[in-house]
Amino acid sequence: MIKINGKSENAALGKSISEYLEQSGYKANQVAVEINGDILPKAEYSQRQIAEGDTIEIVSFVGGG
Amino acid sequence: MNIFLNGKQIITFSQSIDALRCEYGFPEGSITILNGFGVQDSALSENDRVHILEKGTTPDKDTLEELLYARHTPMIQDKFKKACVGIAGLGGLGSNIAVNLARTGIGRLVIADHDTVDPTNLNRQQYRIRHLGMYKTDALKAELGEINPYVEIINVNRKVTEENAAEIFGGCDIVCEAFDNAECKAMLVNTLLEKLPEVKVVAASGLAGLGSCNDIRTRKIGSRLIICGDGVSEAGCGTGLMAPRAAVCAGHQSNAVLQLILGEI
């Protein structure tokens, strides 16, 4: 099973993080991505493929402070 | 009996705070604090911690610290005092977080911003008319000095970037992301979590406007990231940043910092 932001997302299997972000409408320069509890460095977004068992959190920032 | 009066151990025959006040020559109407809480008068028990302060006088460093220790309990205050917390951005979030943490008696605050105070800041940030035109770091340091002069403030009057963030906040246990711009927020959170493996980050997203304050919440993401806010209320035309929600979100961030220091989240 693959979990993204708490929801089952098995269709994401095999996609890179970059692809998933783009398809889901995220702006890559406004997010932080954690996979299985660790931050994913920005440089790895295009190589890291979503694998079976991954638990992914995508935090999207909106402006204001 | 054995009593600690203003931090010093004494032996007294006084049975009440008022009798103790008379014994030590403090004027009537002095502020009297028993074990961290203000009282009018109260019976004394062995090993009570009593503070008597003449109204209108500034307590010295030891007394002020004693009061924080009494109010927060020594075990907790010791942890707060040893902590170093960074605050990146000193606007509606950062200036409020800094005030909260200074009041709590965090030992060291690293406060970073390159901007100056302008009139549009006054609707939600902890600055005053007299600060207009000053660097935010300098203005805030002056404010914090009037709240708790015994917190060590490290002023960083620079723009925080991907290149310098790890150097600026390298000594901190926890860093609060308190920027305005969404890309800057993401940059800082990513950079700190990637480059500083020990640091914890308390960030904010979604606090603009006048929606319900109940929508602003604290979420833990993984082991080192906390996000406060409603996640969606972006600042823009028609959805300005307002004092109450900025303060509520800053309160969430400040409270998360304290919980992290105590290992409660």
Describe the structure in brief.
Chain A is an alpha+beta fold. Helices cover 11% and strands 26% of the residues of chain A.
Describe what this molecule looks like in 3D.
Chain A is of the alpha+beta class. Chain A is built from one helix and five strands. Chain A has a single domain (3-60), classed as Ubiquitin-like (UB roll). By secondary structure, chain B is α/β, with parallel strands linked by helices. Chain B folds into two domains: 2-58, Beta-grasp domain (Ubiquitin-like (UB roll)), CATH 3.10.20.30; 76-261, 3-Layer(aba) Sandwich (Rossmann fold). Chain B has eight helices and twelve strands. Chain B has a seven-stranded mixed sheet with strand order 8-7-6-9-10-12-11, with helices on both faces. Chain B has a five-stranded mixed sheet with strand order 2-1-5-3-4, sandwiched between helices. The model of chain B has no long low-confidence stretch (mean pLDDT 95). The A-B interface holds A 27, 29-32, 34, 37-39, 41-42, 57, 59-65 and B 89, 91-94, 178-183, 185-187, 189-190, 193-194, 203-208, 221-225, 227, 229, 231-236, 241, 246.
